[in-house]
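WARN no homologs supplied; continuing
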Amino acid sequence: MTARKTACGSALLALALMGAAVPAQAAAGEKIGTVDTAFQWIGRDHDILVEAYDDPAVPGVTCYVSRARTGGIKGTLGLAEDRAEASIACRQVGPISFPEPLKKQEEVFSERMSILFKRLRIVRMVDPARNTLVYLTYSEKLIDGSPQNSVTAVPVDRSTPIPLRK
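OK structure emitted
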């Protein structure tokens, strides 16, 4: 192994450890429910978890995310790496308002999916031409992210233009 590869590996490990110490951008979602998908003799069953995330910058919008969770001993102890698959549906759940202008694209939620290396991310994008908020969910792994993703959109009434930061 070359010195360059060793240094690169050490740098990646250091970044992973620093990332584990940094808190997520937003609090964990509110658990709505779970559905068991596979029985496990020891530990919790494999399941699909559904959580709700209120957009912190857009009152009146909630995103519902479903994702697989690994059970068994590793899953129960928080040591398992969950699959990089998630689905998202964001909806207007009340009057939409914009206390402050939004960035054209911004990560609004981030939650750890494994002990060190994987995160579930939700990014909000603004489509000003259609006055619509677009939400994308995907998982990110330190070394090799997943191309699996899900997208949803929340149209905003034209009488309430979405303000953008300059």
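Residues 3-21 form the longest helix (19 residues).
OK
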